């Protein structure tokens, strides 16, 4: 893994498989017959997307800090970012706030850039012809809205699934809430994989498989763990794309 530095005391890494994402984007551009400038633009968009994925992860990390939960590290991979939280308490409220904090970061940025876009447009900076800054602002708004909406899909361990478990845990006990959230998530994952196969969209397939596997391991962990354990094992993942 490539270390990208330490921010707010949290180490950030880029997973080596990221070269596949860069290669894939390059392949798509080549297939579409793009010139060098357009190819660079596509790689730039990849950079923009993952910059906001990273900020999303820091949203989780800062919310976790508020609950005295440490973030060991943040890893960026082609299928999304993962914040490794240590010592997550079994508290629906904490899980709800920490899971929601990531998507809220994206919603906030979408709002800020939308405001900027409107402000600049009103100031007469936009011409009739599409200009680069306008295009960039629109892309950033779209990227953030997609990250916001996609992560709220109730597919545990994605944020929406964690929010769902937290809500269910307020109604039932934690075990039943987890079981329901995992099964709903796996249903969503199967639908995602089917859609990914039809389109075809490899990233969606990988995320679906990831959701299925993590869901199963969560159910196994639940089945094997002792009743008196008050803390979850020192690893909790937040995933997004
Ligand atoms: Zn997230």
Give the strand order, joined by hyphens, for the main sheet. 1-2-3-4-5
Q: What proportion of the residues form beta strands (DSSP E)? A: 5-15%
Profile the largest sheet. Answer: 5 strands, mixed
Structural class: alpha+beta
Mean pLDDT: 88
The helix count comes to 7
Q: Could you list the spans in which at least 5 consecutive residues all have pLDDT below 50?
A: none
User: What oligomeric state do the depicted chains represent?
Assistant: single chain
The tally of beta strands, per DSSP, is 5
Question: So what's the overall shape?
Answer: globular
Helix content: 55-70%
Bound molecules: zinc ion
Looking at this protein, list some descriptive labels.
five-stranded mixed β-sheet; 65% helix; alpha+beta; 7 helices; 5 strands; binds zinc ion; 241 residues; single chain
């Amino acid at each position: 893994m490539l270390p990208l530095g330490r921010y707010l005391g949290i180490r950030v890494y880029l997973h080596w498989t990221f070269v596949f994402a860069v290669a894939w984007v390059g392949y798509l551009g080549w297939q579409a017959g793009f010139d060098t400038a357009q190819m660079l633009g596509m790689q730039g968009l990849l950079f923009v997307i993952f910059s906001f994925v990273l900020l999303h992860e820091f949203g989780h990390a800062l919310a976790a800090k508020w609950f005295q939960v440490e973030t060991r590290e943040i890893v960026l991979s082609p299928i999304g970012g993962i914040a490794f939280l240590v010592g997550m308490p079994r508290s629906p409220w904490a899980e709800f706030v920490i899971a929601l904090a990531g998507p809220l970061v994206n919603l906030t940025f979408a709002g800020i850039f939308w405001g900027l876009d409107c402000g600049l447009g009103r100031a007469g900076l936009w011409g009739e012809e599409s200009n680069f800054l306008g295009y960039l602002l629109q892309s950033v708004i779209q990227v953030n809205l997609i990250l916001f909406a996609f992560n709220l899909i109730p597919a545990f361990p994605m944020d929406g699934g964690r929010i769902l478990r937290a809500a269910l845990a307020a109604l039932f006990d934690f075990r039943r809430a987890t079981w329901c959230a995992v099964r709903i998530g796996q249903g969503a994952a199967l639908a995602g994989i089917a859609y990914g196969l039809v389109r075809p969209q490899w990233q969606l397939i990988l995320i679906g498989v990831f959701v299925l596997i993590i869901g199963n391991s969560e159910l196994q962990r639940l089945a094997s763990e002792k009743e008196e354990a008050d803390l979850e094992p020192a690893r909790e993942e937040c995933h997004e794309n």
